[in-house]
Target: Nodulation protein L
Amino acid sequence: MIRTEKEKMLAGELYHAGCPELQVDLAETRAWLVRYNASLALATADRRRLLAERLAEVGADAVIRPPFFCDYGYNIALGPGVFLNFNCVILDVVSVRIGEGTQIGPLVQILTADHPRDPEVRRSGLEFGRSITIGRNVWIGGGAMILPGVTVGDDAIIGAGSVVARDVPAGMTVVGNPARSVPSRSG
Model:
């Protein structure tokens, strides 16, 4: 059975992003983003309804403050009480799951899109994605980047401006570029 480029993308395999089916999906998401990003003055419930039009899952009381940017939207699942502040970017070529009560600061980037390391394969235009999972009650400081394939455990803290290239265990605090563990502080 021959798989479509979209099926390959969703499976995390090498795919061509320029295929017509994915270009239609991207265009639909851009049109939705125009509507969503113009919704700042709307009530939170109205913005949640807009989110539910495009995202895979929108838990109760989940909030994304516009402006917001994503590739497809349909690969993003937000648990109850999730909060994303202004100017967050989620490149969701594969699944992005954000657990209940997680708070994400402004300018955070969650990036599942990846590219082959082999220059010949990369030159061919192929790319792939690696899923990102963020647990419950995580706090991600402003300007942080979560790179492809990372899992962040429950109750973890990602310091502002950190670049997270490796999994973060539950309850751990990481800061810096690359993000490294530091002792947690109460308060």
